[in-house]
Amino acid sequence: MASGAPNVRELLELERQIYQESIDRVLLQQEKLNSGVLEDFVGRCKPFEQDRERELEVAQTQLQFSLSDAQTLLVFNLQQAENVYKTQREQLKVKLLESTKRRRAKIEMRLKALDEKTSKEKSNFSKKRHIVDVQKNGNLQEKLLEEQLQRAQKKARKSFNFRHLKGVLPTPDRIVNDVMEETERFQRYREREEAVKIAEEGSVDSLVHVETSGDGRTLSCRGENEVENTFAVGEEVMLTSQLTEEDFLGFVSAITSEEVKLMLVCGTHVRVGLDRLRSGQCVLHKQPTENRGGENGEDQINIPSDVAISLEGLLRDPPDVRRRAAAVLNRLKRKTTIDIRRGF
């Protein structure tokens, strides 16, 4: 046993030496590898390095070609898109131009037709109408108007037989009188309109002071004579229109802050604005309790007893009774309707 112990130490020392030699050899190979003189590295890695360099050069060249191709393709695509855009733009221009030409042609045809129609109307009018100046210095000439009506009636009698209408057709003298009356009436209305307009522009007080109650049941009107009239819902009133100079009988159906609603005896609903009452264009009066004869000795017309003369009675009456009442009262208040064409 004692003789075996040195052998173990020798073996361990030998093993240590072997490991040390192996480490030294590896370090030496590493130094040679780092310096590039290792035979194995030179024999094995140098060829691969050369191949790698060649492959890198090939890859670099291929990359350059790819970039060049991509740039060329991009330029081609952009040029193609530009060509498509220009082509579509030209097509759209041509389409819009053709559409505009068609519309222009249609409009020109319409204008041409209108011009031809106007020229025909003017020529026919100049041929058929004997030009007479019926207006001189801004006023209608009664004599010239009457002569024109007589001439028109003579022309009409040549083409039509008016024997069955003898005594019914108005005479030229009557038509002229009606026209002159209507002209004077309209002139008075325009003068009142101008006075109202001047009053509004000059902030002048209205001709009639109109007030409504808060509950909408009554309406008070006070004119220049300081006489105040109060009208309530359901009360019988008479509405006077300054434009037509006619009186309308009816009842107050409702009162609002902006207008007065009336129901005439014929069943027609009428709305009168408070501004028209203030300006005097329309006037409300109390309806007279009895019908009086005219100032020129006109006969008094009696309203039948079966006709409703109050708001409640009018609402209860059937439509035929209201129509009878409207006919009677219209005969009472109706004025002559002007229509010059009746004499042609």
UniProtKB/TrEMBL annotation:
One of its GO terms (biological process) is regulation of gene expression. Residues 78-117 form a coiled coil. Keywords: Coiled coil, Nucleus, Repressor, Transcription, Transcription regulation. Its main location: nucleus. InterPro entries: Sds3. It comes from the Eukaryota. It is found in: Nucleus. GO terms for cellular component: nucleoplasm. This is Uncharacterized protein. It comes from Phytophthora oleae. The lineage of its organism: Eukaryota, Sar, Stramenopiles, Oomycota, Peronosporomycetes.
